[in-house]
Amino acid sequence: MRWFARLLVFWLVLLAVVPEAEGGWFSRKRRGPKKKPAKVVKPTGPKVKIPITGLDVVGNENVSKEVILLAISTKLGDPFSEARLKKDVEAIKKLGYFSSLETDMAPFQGGVKVTFRVAENPIISKLAIQGNALIPTKRIKELLNIKVGSTLNLTQLQEGIKAVNKTYTDKGYAFCGILTNEQFSIDPRTHTLKIKIIEPKLRKLAVTGNRKTRTYVITREMMLKKGRLLKMDDIKRAMRDVHNLGFFEDVKPPTPKLDLKNQAIDLNFEVKEQKTGTASFGGGYSSVNGFIGFIDVSESNFRGKGQTIRGKYQFGGEQSYLFSFVEPWFMGRPVSLGGSVYQTRVEREQFVSGLNMNRFLEERGGFGITSGWRVSRDTRLSASFSDEHVKLDQNISSRGSIQAALPPDIAADDKNKDGIVEYDEQSFGLNWTKDKRDNYLQPRAGYRLSLGFSMTGGWLQGLNGFNKYVGDYRHYVPLKIFHGSTFAARVRGGHTQETDGALRFIDRYAVGGTDSIRGFQDREFTGADFMVANLEFRKDFSKMFGAALFFDIGDAWNSDGLSFDAKASYGAGMRITTPLGPFRLDYGIPTESGRTGRLHFGIGQSF
Question: Does residue 109 come out as left (phi exceeding 0), alpha (psi in the -120 to 50 range) or beta?
């Protein structure tokens, strides 16, 4: 029984001195209900700062403790700070040598000791590069800067990956390099770091967001070839070309889906469609033709196939109708084919030295055929042919001091002396255009160059024969100083080469008015040659409203003994986008003394 007495005494001693751990063998849970703890009164005085009395690192084998401790900002004797400890942890992680990191804190010599427990990355015994063809393996290893025989440094590896990807980007390639964590791994047996470079080829093009427009109408404009490597410029141009169709409010950068195993990539472009059909009507007043009204109905994405169909009827002082249709991809090839039938009736006035001299009626009716070929991504060559019947008639009422009469060079062909000249005229034209604008409807950057040639007479029907040569250059520069502003410039000119007979008044170039030199009357200056320059400062205040300041200068000459005499104007205007389309209203003021300003109405930007 002696051993039993000793055991009982030992049991009682344990009950008296061992702490009551929650849930432990000697806890009050096992002996009865727990007493409610006494209320702890928090001190209201200054917070006690616990000093750092110990710093240590454990788990490191190849990376010295000194290197690790030099990375942290905490020093012995500093007060303990949880925020600073977090920064120290991040600093050690940035060293790149460790796969895991933990911290321990324990009372030590009147303060606290902080211990960093680390697990080092493996030592790399070999580096294996796979999948690269565009950049040599030796160059990739130089860019990665991984030291074989040393502990893997993840920070250096990430910097090396950025350098490799940048090299591909500098060469113009897209989605090439090391893009995911799946592309590198470490063999646990041989400690070989395997890196698989991806140089994917396009496998599939997809489009989302298009409800009306057929997918092939979008993808055929991209010129991204399946089975080929992708380049950044090709993707940017594809987005621009799709946006320039005019069917979409927005075209987002593509979302890539990589297939590492097959070195392939699928691209998905997301678009947001906008209205492509318009039905507009309106009217205006011209000093020459009086009231003019029109009804214009068009659809630029007919049946979702990108076809353009248009019908227009104009009445009042100018009467006309037009019906046209254009297929942008004829027989599945990037060749456009279009046709139109039209009839126009408009009163013309002949100006001499700024004065109205003659007034007559001009009627034209016939058809036209156009076709265009894509020479390269931004370059097109087009051809056109028109066949029309022309009637010029002076039998209209005079207006004030302006007599109803045909211009002298036209009256010479009035064989019956009845004030009417009629004839058939055919024309053929070629046009070469290089268009590098970011958006053809609202350009803010880039340029456009167009060179044209047209002829009539000779093997074509016509009273007289002549060739015309026209050049048009436009340039756009975004102004970063003023957000949403653009500097736009345009220079165009033309020359007429007479081949059979003299150039008549109605066949001359005409400048002045809404689309050339604002502030002057429409077609006020005519001649065999012309030159016009326009400068505009444009500012968008919202998606619907903008304004412009402009300066115009130019002239038409080399007819009626006239030589070049520059006419200039300046002014301001408004740009308004409505559900019926974009409109502009400009007020031009000629620099000539004695001239008053004029208001001009137009559709869309002037150029």
Answer: left
The H helix count followed by the E strand count for the chain is 8, 29
Strands (E), 71-217: 98-108, 111-120, 126-130, 184-186, 192-196, 201-208
Position 240, amino acid: R
Mean pLDDT of the chain: 86
Separation between Cα atoms, residue 141 and residue 186, nearest integer Å: 16
Long-range contacts of the stretch 310-316 (C-beta < 8 A, 24+): 316/283, 316/289, 316/290, 316/291, 316/292
Q: For 27-37, how does the pLDDT look when each residue is reduced to its tens digit (9 = 90+)?
A: 333 344 444 44
Whole-angstrom Cα distance, residue 514 to residue 286?
Answer: 12
Q: Any residues with CB less than 8 A from the CB of 94 and at least 6 apart, and which? A: 71, 155
- pLDDT, one tens digit per residue, over 237-292 is 899 899 889 899 899 999 999 998 899 999 999 999 998 887 766 555 555 455 56
Query: Tokens for 35?
Result: 């007493």
Token digits for 268? 């998905």
Q: What is the pLDDT of residue 289?
A: 52
Among 329, 328, 326, which residue's Cα sits nearest to residue 308? 326
Q: Could you count the other beta carbons within 10 Å of the beta carbon of residue 507?
A: 20
What's the rounded Cα separation, in Å, for the pair 495 and 559? 12
Q: In what order do the strands lie in the sheet with 111-120?
A: 52-58, 111-120, 98-108
Rounded CA gap, 602 and 295, in Å? 15
Give the integer Cα–Cα distance in Å for 443 and 242.
15
* pLDDT confidence of residue 349: 81
Is the pLDDT at 235 greater than 50, yes or no?
yes
Range in 27-31, 96-100, 371-375, 528-532 with the lowest mean pLDDT: 27-31
Find the mean pLDDT for residues 350-371: 83
SS3 track for 572-588? EEEEEEECCEEEEEEEE
* Rounded Cα distance, 269 and 549, in Å: 37
